[in-house]
Amino acid sequence: MSSLRSDLYLRIIELLVQARKDAGITQAELGKRIDQRQTFVSKVELGERRLDVAEFILISRAIGADPNGIMRQAEAERY
Predict the structure, then answer these.
(1) Of 7, 36, 49, 79, which sits with the fewest C-beta atoms within 10 Å of its C-beta?
(2) What is the CATH number of domain 7-78?
(3) How is 58-70 classified by DSSP, letter by letter?
(4) pLDDT (tens digit, 0 to 9) for every residue of the chain, 79 residues total?
(5) Which helix (H) or strand (E) holds 74?
(6) Global pTM?
């Protein structure tokens, strides 16, 4: 199974998107914070681009979210 389409990966991305929205940060603002374009953020959030671990941590911190907490929540919901 590809990790891009796994249930766990998809849930992690959903939680990351929700954390961004809860923080009141737009895709464009997040892009600026991580030195990427808004389209990069959009593609990650739509599942069109795979997010690696380092990028996940960078994005989590840029929106004020705990990357470990996101992963724990996604994993707990899976089982």
Answers:
(1) 79
(2) 1.10.260.40
(3) HHHHHTT--HHHH
(4) 455 568 899 999 999 999 999 999 999 999 999 999 999 999 999 999 999 999 999 999 999 999 999 999 999 986 5
(5) helix 67-78
(6) 0.89
